[in-house]
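Bench notes, afternoon.
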Amino acid sequence: MSEIKRIKEESGEARNKALEALFADYDNNSVTVTELPSKGKFYKNFQGVEVSPLTFTDEQRILNSRGDGEDIVSKLLEKTVRGVEIEDLLSMDKMYLLMRLRELSYGDMYEFNITCNSCTTDIKTSLKLSEHLNMNQVEDDLMDPREIVLPKLKAKVLVRFPRSKEEKFLTGGEHTLKNIFRFIVSINGNQDPVFINQAIKRLHLMDIKTIINEVTKGEYGIDPRFYFECPECSHTETMAIPMDVGFFSVS
């Protein structure tokens, strides 16, 4: 029995050595990204991030995860990105890295189907991703947290950027309104979260929108929208690049 175990161990070691030798000179085309929309300003000891392309195993995991509710995007980034904690990524950087990961894994062209909102025809569409990687970076003097003055109440509010792990609190509408207090550090110097939450409920709509716009900072990063013209009915509109699990698949 011991002899059989010894032979198996030796066979496994030889196999591992053979695999290492096979891939010794293998270039997986990983790239180091230093120019993020945030410029890396809000990460500790930032020296750039390394992005590696997806493997066959990664793609199969994506395809098998359809509909199971798993946060596959964050899992993929954890596997392919080094240099920053994925849960601490700002939304602007997360979107940019997803685009780079897709481009690196499958090439510059992305083909997908779109249903025209006018004639309901399914249209096969293709985009060159590199044309959508142009980014708007933050200014060098932008801080996090940072102080703003509300236009109606005239109060000074200290707000901060949400991180990837907090995106669940900003899904839109009433849900965002209920959770926006999480990203307010203080109002006129008062840091009591109960006070902040109660104050939000009494704010003018203009002040609420000012806070949300400042927290999300949608003007930074990349714009995933593109101009679509239906070849069947000539309907035109601006649409967002679909970035579901199908975004990370060759089919």
